[in-house]
């Protein structure tokens, strides 16, 4: 499996000094666990810390040289479109710069690839040409997905720690410099949409409220313009519902 790992020039959150981005080093570790042939890919000005990724398990690094004010998207699209890796790994977000976390999604859209976010573990899928992704969810939950390759996967900080840095591996690694595509960052088009009211949530949980209270809360939310989906009440609460319907005038007698 041919894997490309996207690398960025990070800065330490406290000292502000250049340093590798930890979640990108974790991405290298996930690719190493797959036994894949990995290539690092960085689009930007020269940075000494980018080559430190070679000491964490990369054997080859491609540096696409562009100006600091250039957009890296065009250079990455051209390079990945030519090499066509089976899997592209990226960090969840960069560190220390103008980090929005949108580059992997813009890149996947330009290449026509599916995106799986926040991977904490990777394994070979049940069928050839597939990948099993363990996705990190809030509150420590996990979800397993099977994605068909090629695909782009972003890595979550909950992934295993990076491989230890080895200076000898850093010296053995190959850095290949190429000319990138100069693409000045301009104002990207922003899509404007009309406001759409969102459903109103019931403050009290459905589990702790009676059937009549759930129906009353849903009625009040609906009257305010929202739309709420309520779980069907149990059969033993039918009398409470009928009494509430009589109170609000829906039923008589």
Would you kindly provide a brief summary of this structure?
The chain is built from 6 helices and 11 strands. The protein is α/β, with parallel strands linked by helices and 253 residues long. β2 and β3 form a beta hairpin.
Secondary-structure topology with pairs:
Blueprint: E1 2-6, E2 10-11, E3 18-19, H1 22-33, E4 37-44, E5 60-65, H2 72-83, E6 87-91, H3 103-111, E7 115-124, E8 130-136, E9 142-148, E10 151-155, H4 167-172, E11 174-179, H5 211-223, H6 238-247
Parallel strand pairs: 1-4, 1-6, 4-5, 5-11, 6-10, 7-10
Antiparallel strand pairs: 2-3, 7-8, 8-9
Helix pairs in contact: 2-3, 5-6
Notes on the protein architecture:
It contains six helices and eleven strands. Helix 2 crosses helix 3 and helix 5 packs parallel to helix 6.
The count of helical stretches stands at: 6
What shape does the CA trace take?
A: elongated
Structural class: alpha/beta
User: Going across the major beta sheet, what is the strand order?
Assistant: 9-8-7-10-6-1-4-5-11
The proportion of residues forming helix, as a percent range, comes to 10-25%
Please tally the β strands and state the result: 11
The secondary-structure element order is: EEEHEEHEHEEEEHEHH
Distance between the termini: 72 Å
What do the pLDDT scores average to?
83
Largest sheet report = 9 strands, mixed
Radius of gyration, taken over Cα atoms and rounded to an integer in Å: 25 Å
Beta-strand content: 15-25%
Contiguous runs where pLDDT drops below 50 for at least 5 residues: 225-230
Features:
elongated; 253 residues; alpha/beta; 6 helices; nine-stranded mixed β-sheet; 25% helix; single chain; two-stranded antiparallel ribbon
């Amino acid at each position: 499996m041919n894997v490309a790992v996207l690398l960025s020039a990070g800065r330490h959150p406290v000292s502000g000094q250049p340093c590798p981005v930890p979640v990108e080093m974790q991405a290298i570790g996930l690719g190493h666990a797959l036994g894949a042939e990995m290539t690092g890919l960085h689009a930007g000005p020269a940075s000494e810390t980018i080559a430190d990724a070679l000491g964490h398990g990369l054997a080859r690094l491609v540096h696409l040289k562009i100006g600091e004010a250039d957009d890296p998207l065009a250079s990455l699209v051209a390079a990945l479109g030519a090499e066509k890796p089976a899997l592209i790994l990226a960090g969840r977000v960069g560190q220390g710069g103008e980090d929005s976390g949108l580059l992997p999604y813009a890149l996947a859209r330009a290449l026509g690839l599916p995106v799986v976010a926040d991977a904490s573990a990777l394994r070979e899928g049940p069928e050839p040409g597939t990948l099993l992704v363990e996705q990190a969810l809030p509150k420590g939950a996990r979800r397993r997905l099977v994605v068909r390759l090629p695909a782009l996967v972003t890595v979550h900080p909950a992934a295993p720690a990076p491989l230890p840095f080895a200076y000898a591996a850093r010296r053995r690694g190959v850095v290949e410099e190429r000319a990138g595509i100069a693409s000045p960052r301009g104002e990207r088009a922003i899509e404007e949409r009309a406001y759409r009211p969102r459903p109103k949530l019931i403050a009290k949980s459905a589990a702790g409220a009676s059937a009549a209270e759930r129906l009353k809360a849903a009625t009040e939310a609906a009257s305010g313009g929202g739309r709420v989906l309520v779980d069907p009440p149990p059969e033993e609460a039918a009398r409470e519902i009928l009494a509430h319907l009589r109170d609000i005038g829906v039923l008589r007698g």
